[in-house]
Design brief:
5 helices, mainly alpha, elongated, 178 residues
Length: 178
């Protein structure tokens, strides 16, 4: 009958504080690596593709509003100052939303960015005929409501960003274009 030896490690006080050799490390990690490898490989195969960022529609809306405001100057030259402010601020909104989308995507340790399912939004073409101030006011009202509705489903910085964009759109529509 073979004899079985049980090795009992010395009490912690007599052991060297950081004496971990390669053999001990491999023995401790051996079972975990095999388990992780099997579970990790199964998990990778089942990951759904990343969805576009929920802020994408807000970026598109802001860029569209900016183009509309610039185009509306042709039909209302007396409102050029207000329409220029709206176009500039809506462009800033789009840029701020894009910066948040990019921040959330992250950056790898080597400085490269991961592939994103939320590509940058190109400014839309100008409308065929210049929109009226009333049409732009309605568009800004829709943008305001959309930003407000989405802000209520988010938290932290994103909620605050959209709430401030919503307030700005309300000011554009209710004050600058009144």
């Amino acid at each position: 009958m073979p004899s079985t030896h049980i090795v009992i490690p010395p009490p912690p006080s007599s052991r060297a504080p950081s004496a971990v050799n390669r053999r001990t490390l491999l023995r401790l990690a051996g079972g975990g690596v095999a388990t992780f490898g099997v579970l990790g490989a199964a998990g990778c195969a089942e990951d759904p593709p990343a969805q576009p960022d929920v802020l994408l529609a807000q970026e598109q809306s802001a860029r569209t509003d900016a183009v509309w405001a610039r185009a509306a100057i042709a039909g209302a030259p007396d409102r050029t100052a207000a329409l220029t402010v709206i176009a500039e601020q809506r462009t800033q909104h789009a840029d701020a939303v894009r910066a948040e989308i990019d921040r959330a995507t992250g950056v790898y340790g080597d400085g490269t960015k991961p592939e994103s399912n939320t590509p940058p939004v190109a400014p839309p073409p100008a409308p065929a005929s210049p929109p009226t101030v009333a049409a732009l006011r309605d568009q800004l009202g829709r943008s305001q409501r959309s930003a407000a509705d989405l802000s209520q489903t988010l938290s932290g910085y994103r909620a605050g960003l959209l709430a401030s964009i919503s307030a700005c759109c309300a000011t554009h529509a209710g004050v600058l274009l009144a």
